[in-house]
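Exam revision sheet. Question 4 asks you to relate a sequence to its structure. Input first:
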Amino acid sequence: MLIDYHIHTKLCGHASGEMEEYVENAIKNGLAEMGFSDHLPLFHIEPGDLSMKMEDFPIYVNKVKEMQEKYKDKITIRFGCEVEYTPEIEKKTKDILSQYNFDYLLGSTHFLGMWIFDHPDHKDEFEKRDIYEIYSDYFNGLEKMISSGMFDIVAHIDLIKKFGYKPSRPLEEIYKKVAKKINENNMAIEINTSGLHKPVKEMYPTPELLKICFEANIPVTLGSDAHRPEDVTRDFDKAIELIKNTGYTKIAQFVNRKRILINI
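Answer key, structure tokens:
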């Protein structure tokens, strides 16, 4: 049974296609279950084309409900959201999330301070900083997100590698530290296949980090990070191969914020 829990919509400003098209592609590709998880509106900056606007969030919620009803006899559709974690607005974020009955929440980090490190327009900043320190700062921020207790899944856990910048120093200790924090907070991580189509040409996480997560008994789930209908389930054959080669025999499913492990 395969699932895709990381699917966006055009409401975020940087995706295309109608929600029906994403669902139809999921059905065509044999999914038993999918989940919409578009970007919760950003509060600490103008959302621009980075996330939904606050006035669009109710539209998103209602549209997911509409899709669930329309396709209930063909596929299970879960209600999720990808949430940018920023300590300064943690309370406001919690207040908004508490108003809705999500099936799961993806926690993510795309900022180091005000630097949007995964945005192509700002990647030159990597040339101005020590790469190991960038990674250290990123994973420290990720640990704060994990420790907040707000989320079920860590999204694209090593997103910091997106543009192919990697430190010469080993990252094993940083990886072990973040895996320990994930385990302590009873979260899962996603195998996110979108990295294969970014400059780094790798899934998130890297095999070394995934192995450490496996050894820490951290469950995995699947996400294409689809921003176009045709991206749904993209490269899932490679994801399953990676999961199985690491030692996993099950993936995580979420219903009403509760995790269930199912066979792959």
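Marking note for examiners. The chain has one domain: 3-263.
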